[in-house]
Amino acid sequence: MKKNRIKHIIITLGACSLAVTGCQKLDININPNNLSEQDAAMESLFPSAVMSTVGRIDGDYAIVGGMWAQFWAQASSSSQYRDLDSYNISSNTGYVNNSYSELNTGALLDLTTIITKAREKHDWRFYLMATTLRAYIYQVLVDLYDKVPYSEAMQGSKYLQPKFDDGYAIYKSLLTELDDALAKDFTSVPFSASQIKVDLIFGDKGAADFETEMANWKKLANTLKLKMYLRMVNVKPNEAEAGVSTLLNSDTEFLTVPAGVSTFQDVPNGSNPFYELNVRRLNTQTNLRGSRTLGSFLKANNDPRIIAYFGSADPKLMHQGDFRNNSVEAQQSAVAVQKATDPAWLFALPEVYFLRAEADVRYNNSTNAESLYRQGVVEAFVERGFTEAEANTLLSGPYAFPTAGTPEQQIEAIIVQKWVSLFGPHAIEAFFEKNRTGYPRTSTVYSTDPDYVPGRLVIVPQTVIGQTLPKRFVFPDFERSRNTNTPAEVPLSTPVWWAK
Fold first, then answer.
1. How far apart are CA 287 and CA 275, in angstroms?
2. pTM exceeds 0.85, yes or no
3. Range of 175's domain?
4. N or C: which end of the chain has fewer CB atoms below 10 A?
């Protein structure tokens, strides 16, 4: 892809109010291949990169992830997302094209510039922050596309047609880069208190001093490494075990606060990107309806989070992919709850605990798995406004950890609870985890069948990919029209390199 574009960059922090395509930017055209020291200030580029990242991963990708994880379904009264609900997406659709182009020409280009400048200045604070966020974005892109430009990308005119690297090779490089960034001497970093304002990930989460901020970024990098090693369990089991075991045996610290942006406001161009794209920009709140797949699971277990997700303790629910059903019940199906002020997470705390619980089952004989699992469930309730007591009621009943079960039964319990917790702007992660683990299970019957088991994903009636579920994205026109190295089209039903 061409890298010598003209990009609008942030030059004031006060403009960082919104997330859909990056922070709001003053109208100044700057060539990113010829930036001055002032124009390319790391303090200006980093918030732009953060907002581009969450604007797409917790925006467009949230809509897709929640549809394909069967949290919500297309309403029968409209057609906005029928292509998603029938797996009939094309390479020029906004979910594919716009997100890919923004992440590459926005966030990744900014972060590459920061890494170069930080290395030159020995500013290891920005080096760790930019390396970690860059690795996070590439991990998401690899998980969606399997192969993306990486080793030859972001190098200006040197590679106008960058090659596509294998996902596994990219993962290995990212892990090496994270280790390099974590090994730097942060005691020598120049730092002023005002710089905390540009850290939109941890700046408002108790990081009032340099040491706390750096500790949080190290934990974020470690948590990302844990997730990436667990992605490998099916195809690179020895590497996965070695990587996770090293983390567990070295008393590695993982996130203890959520990582992401949580300062959105209920104003135009200031709200959560998922809400901004699906509600405010479309001028309707009713496109996404509660899916019977998730809703039936919550109902079957008397889970009070059904109110937070679908607005009622007993909502009418859409059968996934049943958007041609114009019955009264379908028309009255519950709207999936979205709020303008919802945070956009890279990692929410429940996800962190569930990752750690799975790692403990696989590589530590389940020594701490039940405790970590319970913490994950409790945090998942608390973050939705429910109490620890309400979580404990279900943990003493249908959500009890299968202590006497097999490791696979324990992993299933963990992943199903992770799935439930990921409802909302970070839903793309639920789609990835289904493809990696196979959980929640796929139903052998449709959800209208009396034998349907609540919570199992269904094959939708309008599917265009056969009796299977989607496993990836198609390559975007943004890349194909510019880069002759773009691989031949791959069906959505083809797994990415790490998938089960």
1. 12
2. yes
3. 1-236+256-288+471-500
4. C
